[in-house]
Amino acid sequence: MGGTIVVRGGRPLYGTAQVPAAKNSVLPLLAASLLCAGPVRLRGVPRLSDVESCLALLRAAGCAAGWDGGDVVVSGRAACCRLPAGETARLRASVLFAAPLLAKLGRAETALPGGCRIGARPVDWHLAALERMGARVEQAAQRLLLTAPAGLHGAEIRLPGPSVGATETVLLAGCAARGQTRLQGAAMEPEIVDLARFLNQCGGCVRGAGTAEIVIEGGRPLHGTAYDPMPDRICASTLACAAAAARGWVTVAGCAPGLYAPVLDILEQAGCRVLRSAQSATVGCAGGLRGAGRLVTGGYPALATDAAPLVAAALLTARGQTVIEDRVFEARFGCAGGFAALGAAVRTMRGGRELWIEGAGARPLHGAQMAAGDLRGGAALVVAALAAEGESRIAGCGYIDRGYPALEQMLARLGARICREMPPEAPD
Ligand code: EPZ
Fold it and tell me: Where's it found, cell-wise (predicted)?
């Protein structure tokens, strides 16, 4: 969709919002479907541009992949090892398609992945893990050529850091490889657990997902399945932060509060009421908030890096200081310029690793023109604009569409004055 989101802030939010399935689970599941002999149905998938990009990659690989109502269905076998550079450059998750193609066809030709510009984001750990499993990697400019004519074999792998994507690459390669793979230093994010659950439901054998050591018994044939991807904890965090920023009383339904516990805890400490039940959380905020002091992001179960700009947006009008250090990505706070345009007293420190917020307190934010520069930063600008008096315009909403199925409609249903303007269509 793209275009500009227009917000008239200053109105509290009330009601219940349903959390969609997690983008960061659906994308690896789509890559995993390349390993399955029968059809895969993912139920209740949100219409996101990143999902569309993955469907295009699956079709380029020779599969049938498309929508059946709200589900996504993938069938057929991979027949083509070459992925189009344009599509791979659109998103980071395209790197996850390399291991299944390599395992199935002995060769994968792809390009360095794109994705949000929140840091350097190399793929060296993915490639090193695949090399340990028998792959040969050649890199020329932006192109990657991976070959494994004798197939992949199990290996002992230790990741230099708990990378979500590299852990997913090892899970995918390990299931298709001969013998056992033991992965140490694995990421422990719930999306890894979801991928392992999917692979096991298809006949694979992955143990230890959700801990730092994962053991995969490879070589078992994987069949198709129907699967419900986990809920999107970052979308849930977005809705909770929106309730705090705009004030009001919002129930975030369909996502266990434990999946984004740090966000709820921070909002509670800042002065929100938070009511938790098994599959929902209600965030209430009537009066002023307090700054949260020093916050640090990290791998699960710490505060998620993706949630950092959203928490910041909620605390721009708090009384007192909040400092957020992102320990995962170097350039997470590209949204700081937009926050400043709204009148917030913010600055980035330590080369962009830290965002300092001197809470506006009683001083209100005012509407401004801003541009989304990445997915979560863009959503954070929308959340911040809910707290600003007057009209705000957030351009570049194509970034936001990567991870939210019509964010403005989700917020409008809660009472926000928000809409989207599309540029006029060019005449034929
Ligand atoms: C996933 O990205 C998510 N994307 C990101 O969400 C999320 O921010 C991130 O994990 C951290 O939770 C998807 O799941 C599609 P990493 P990923 O590998 O896998 C370094 C969103 O908004 N690293 O865990 O790319 C890397 O530079 C997106 O939904 C290497 O150095 O993240 C980073 O500093 C944005 N070499 C750190 O590890 C590698 O080969 C963690 O990155 C791999 C990673």
Answer: Cytoplasm
